[in-house]
Every structure is written in C-alpha cells, then in structure tokens.
Amino acid sequence: MKPYIICYDLNIPNQRYEDLYAAIESLGAYCKLQKSVWIVKTSKEPSQIYEILAKSIDKNDDIFIAELADSYYGWSHKENWDFLANHIF
User: Fold this and answer.
1) CATH code assigned to 2-88
2) What is the DSSP annotation of 24-85?
3) The pTM is what?
C-alpha cells in the first residue's frame, strides 16, 4: 500500500462532487486535507486510480495523482495530522 495525493478542479458544467468523493473514499484510507486535495493509501497504481476517478469527472475537469513520501510539512487541523501519521505514513 502506498500513499498518494489527489488534487482536482471540477469545472462547470456537471460538477459531480459526491460521485468523485465516493470514488476517492472507495480507494482505501483517506484524508480530505483541503477542499480539492485528498491523501489516500491504496494498493493501486496512479493509472488505476485515475481510471476509477475518471468515471466521476468530465473532459473539462483537471486531476493530478502522485505518490507521496514520508516527508511532509504544513499546517492543518490536528485530526488531519493524526490521521496521516496513524493511517497513511
């Protein structure tokens, strides 16, 4: 299982946030770090993740998926940091 960051912009029309959220949550352990930034831990590769999420986005939307290393820094809610430490890294 590897940690990945997923970033997206759902552009008008047809913003299907609920479908995309459900698809991301189906991948494994997850943390919604910011409005359009999620961290997930899954056994899938980036191309497989994309194929799952692509069903919930349109051609005019943007999406980025990258593997993460256990080297991070920033500011977020304590529960996010705890979740990342205990379930992702």
Assistant:
1) 3.30.70.240
2) HHTTSEEEEEETTEEEEEESS-HHHHHHHHHTTS-TT-EEEEEE--S-------HHHHHHII
3) 0.91
